[in-house]
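Try this one yourself first.
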């Protein structure tokens, strides 16, 4: 591009290069970097390869120092957590032990005790039961006798009702020998119920440490209770069967002399009481063991 030389009478006005270029319609011109640096007074200085390598090594060392410092900080944090972090609770491998109770009725009999015309006792006025207990872990034995006077009459107040008796003898170790209990049963009935505690349930709720059932049972050991095993003898007897007396001279005479109401008698003399039906029962309570993993 040919530039027109300024005339002598032209005024020279300073203007930014960009505005001059725009006024002339010129665009940006690419210039080599070396020329730009020369215009700016900058110069490219040649350095030996060793210095360049040293400069790069220095930069790497500085970066390594930063990373090393960060690593040391993490290590210190880890050590701090090792000594201050709360440890989780230790899981104890244990088994819970449950003692389950079951009730077994070994004897339940409905029968009748008979009084003869001459009174009680008689040949059929008593009955003996022999109950063999062969179950282990018995905690209690219950014996009962239930009856209702079947000839009520004047026995409604139970004062002259039928009298029945239980006599009990247990096996060795129970300390129960010929224990006799009797009661009067009137129109409302009367029950005899006796409970004898045997050995109690073992006081063990858990075993540890155990990894399996076999180890748990080994830690539990033999908890077998053999108290109460053997033959129990129970005798049921009727001691009195109270007749129902009417209001008559003959009845008053017989009753005052202590005689029984004659068989086949009827009111107004008397109604005879020839005995009484009853219910007898023998029951045991025993325990069994069950274990359950609790981890």
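Now uncover the answer:
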């Amino acid at each position: 591009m040919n530039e027109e030389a300024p005339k002598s009478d032209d005024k020279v006005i300073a203007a930014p290069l960009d505005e001059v270029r725009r006024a002339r319609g010129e665009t940006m011109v690419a210039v080599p970097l070396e020329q730009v640096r020369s215009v700016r007074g900058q110069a490219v200085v040649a350095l030996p390869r060793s210095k360049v390598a040293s400069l790069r090594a220095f930069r790497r060392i500085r970066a390594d120092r930063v990373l090393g410092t960060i690593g040391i900080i993490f290590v210190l944090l880890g050590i701090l957590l090792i000594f201050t972090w709360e440890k989780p609770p230790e899981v104890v491998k244990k088994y819970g032990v449950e003692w389950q109770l079951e009730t077994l009725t070994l004897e339940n009999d409905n029968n009748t005790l008979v009084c003869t015309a001459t009174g009680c006792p008689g040949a059929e006025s008593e009955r003996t039961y022999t109950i063999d207990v062969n179950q282990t872990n018995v905690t209690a034995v219950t014996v009962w006798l239930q009856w209702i006077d079947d000839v009520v009459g004047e026995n409604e107040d139970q004062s002259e009702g039928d009298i029945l008796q239980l006599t009990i003898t247990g096996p060795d170790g129970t300390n129960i020998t010929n224990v006799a209990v009797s009661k009067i049963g009137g129109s409302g009935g009367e029950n005899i119920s006796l409970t004898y505690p045997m050995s109690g349930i073992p006081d063990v709720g858990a075993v540890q440490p155990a990894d399996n059932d076999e180890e748990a049972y080994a830690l539990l050991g033999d908890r077998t209770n053999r108290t109460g095993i053997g033959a129990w003898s129970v005798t049921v007897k009727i001691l009195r069967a109270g007749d129902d007396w009417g209001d008559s001279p003959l009845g008053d005479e017989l009753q005052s002399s202590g005689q029984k109401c004659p068989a086949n008698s009827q009111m107004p003399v008397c109604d005879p009481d020839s005995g009484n039906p009853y219910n007898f029962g023998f029951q045991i309570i025993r325990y069994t063991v069950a274990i359950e993993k609790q981890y």
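Discussion: The longest strand covers residues 95-114. The longest helix spans residues 49-84.
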